[in-house]
Amino acid sequence: MHETRGRVRSDDDAQVSPATYAAGKTVSSHTPAGQGLIFGVVKVPHVRTYSTTPRSVPSPQVTLLSPLVATPTFSKNEKEHCTSASVESEETQMDSAIDLSDASKALDLGNIRFQLIRLEDTITFHLIERVQFPLNGTIYKPGAIEIPGWDRSFLDWTLFQQEKLQSKIRRFESPDEYPYFPDALEKPILKPLDYPKILHKNDVNINDQIKKSYIDNFLPGACPNFGRDDRGEREENYGSTAVCDIACLQALSRRIHFGKFVAESKFSTETELFTKLIQDGDREGIANAITKPAVEKQVLARLRLKAETYGKDPSTGADGPAKINVDAVVRMYEDFVIPLTKEVEVDYLMQRLQAE
């Protein structure tokens, strides 16, 4: 039995007793066999709470994976993750984080910094959700799971289908979103938003590198060892694993490609310096000009604190078990998030003087 999250609910509909709510207690309840253990946190001011009552979700009409032995349809985890990882539109991101309808606000370094800090939270929480499950390396191997008309991995198929759907509701119309599968995109069913010109025209998209680094470098060190081998699609939560991976990958992509906004902002404030470096083809000089070692140390220290804090149940105290390998999270940022962000910045600036 593994841990699964309850549905996110608002304070006014959290199904807990008044006495428990008034006391501000952490509550837990066992659900029927095969549905796992659901934890709920109550009375957190201005913060959504987790319901302690599972809800039923209709089984999908078509499944690619063989059913799990314990249940003939998607597991409780898969149902909950499919619901909680619903498509987040670009309007929500714009309204709650950074205003992409105003180029001056979008390129303000203070606003960009705030957005990058918010993304640290997003990425950390997504990673904590992912490591509930073992590595499940089968889903990353082309052809390991038979899918009609598809010769790539199960993760790639799931990501392709997700981006196909998200493109229809304008996700990739937003200037801060980049698809892993550009050929999956379809015409949106919603009318286009009137975004101003923010970035110079460019073709920088390093999602293939992001996905490779995430699968090859981060996951092996972060996923816990459950003391068993991959048991196959009838016993492992492949669907839930892929949904969690997609949430992580898309958040990482957004974080890393935000380097374009940083680069454009720096170019606008130090145009003469960067123009000369670009004309000289001096990639190393550009990299040195955009690198702030002190800031990078602050980012890593802040990320470590967040991973340590978010990865602990407050009711168990500082000595309680950790939900995630904190060192693996910090190494991920140090070894590939920060370096790949710099690569995006340099690649973008190298195209900055090209005619549009």
How would you characterize the overall build of this protein?
This protein is mainly alpha-helical. The protein has one domain (87-350): Chorismate Mutase, subunit A (Orthogonal Bundle), CATH 1.10.590. The chain is built from 13 helices and 5 strands. The chain has a 3-stranded mixed beta sheet with strand order 1-4-3. The protein has a two-stranded antiparallel ribbon with strand order 2-5. Helix 5 packs parallel to helix 12 (293-310) and helix 12 (293-310) packs antiparallel against helix 13 (326-350). It is globular and about 60 Å long.
Write the layout of secondary structure elements.
Elements: E1 3-5, E2 8-9, H1 18-23, E3 26-30, E4 37-41, E5 49-50, H2 76-84, H3 90-96, H4 103-106, H5 109-130, H6 154-168, H7 207-222, H8 238-257, H9 259-269, H10 271-279, H11 283-290, H12 293-310, H13 326-350
Parallel strand pairs: 1-4
Antiparallel strand pairs: 2-5, 3-4
Helix pairs in contact: 2-8, 5-8, 5-12, 6-8, 7-13, 8-13, 9-10, 9-13, 11-13, 12-13
Using the CA coordinates, give the radius of gyration: 22 Å
User: Low-confidence parts, pLDDT < 50 over ≥5 residues?
Assistant: 1-57, 70-95
CATH topology: Chorismate Mutase, subunit A
Total helical elements: 13
The number of strands is 5
Overall CATH class: Mainly Alpha
- CATH architecture, by name, is Orthogonal Bundle
Any idea what the CATH superfamily is called? Chorismate mutase, AroQ class superfamily, eukaryotic
Q: Indicate the multimeric state.
A: single chain
Question: How many domain units?
Answer: 1
Helix content: 40-55%
Please provide the ordered H/E string of secondary-structure elements.
EEHEEEHHHHHHHHHHHH
